[in-house]
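sorry for the late reply, my laptop died twice this morning and i had to redo everyting from scratch. anyway the thing you sent over, i finally got around to it. pasting the sequence first so we're on the same page, its 177 residues, then the predicted structure underneath. double check i copied it right bc i was rushing
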Amino acid sequence: MSLFKFLRGTRENSFGIGDGTDGNKVLEANNGDANVPVIRYNSSTNKWEFANDGVTFAAIGSGTSTFAPSVIAKTGNGTLSAAECANGNLITNTGAGSDIALALPAGAIGYELDLEVTAAYYLKLTANGTETFKFYSLVSAAGGYVRSNIVGTRWKLTWNGALWAVHDINGFVSYDE
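ok and here's the structure:
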C-alpha cells in the first residue's frame, strides 16, 4: 500500500480496486482517528457499505438505511430528535415561532444539519442542556442560539460531541448567548 501513498486520483473514466480475487474492497479516509470512516464493497453480500466510525457498517441504497437526507419543515416551537439531526437533513420553517431545541443523546458525534429560512419568520436553533454553539471564533454559553428570519438564508450545524459548529453561512445569521 505504501507504494501508492501519494496517489491523488485518476484521469480515467473508470477506477478499479482489487486484483480480481474474492474479498472486500475498501476505501478509507485516514483522518488520524483510531476508527477511520470507510466505504467498502462487501464481497460476501455483494453490496456497497459505509461506516462513519469504521466499525458499524450499513448498506448503501438498501432502502432501510438512513443515509439519505430528508426535508423537515418546522412550524412552532419544538425539538429535533437525534434521528432528525442526522444525515445532513434540511430543516426549514413554515410559519411563526420556529424555536427548535436540539436533542442529542449523550456522547453522540457526527451529526450535521442544513438549515434554510423558507418563511419570513425566525428559524431559531437553541442548544439543549449543556450544549454550546461555536460561531466563527466565539463559543456560546450553554443554551445559546443561532437564528435568522431572512428568506433564503442557509447555514449548517455540525455536532462534534462537544459543541455545535456553525458554518457555510449563505445570508444573515445572528448569534446570542
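The first strand starts at residue 25 and ends at 28.
thats about all i looked at so far, will dig more tmrw
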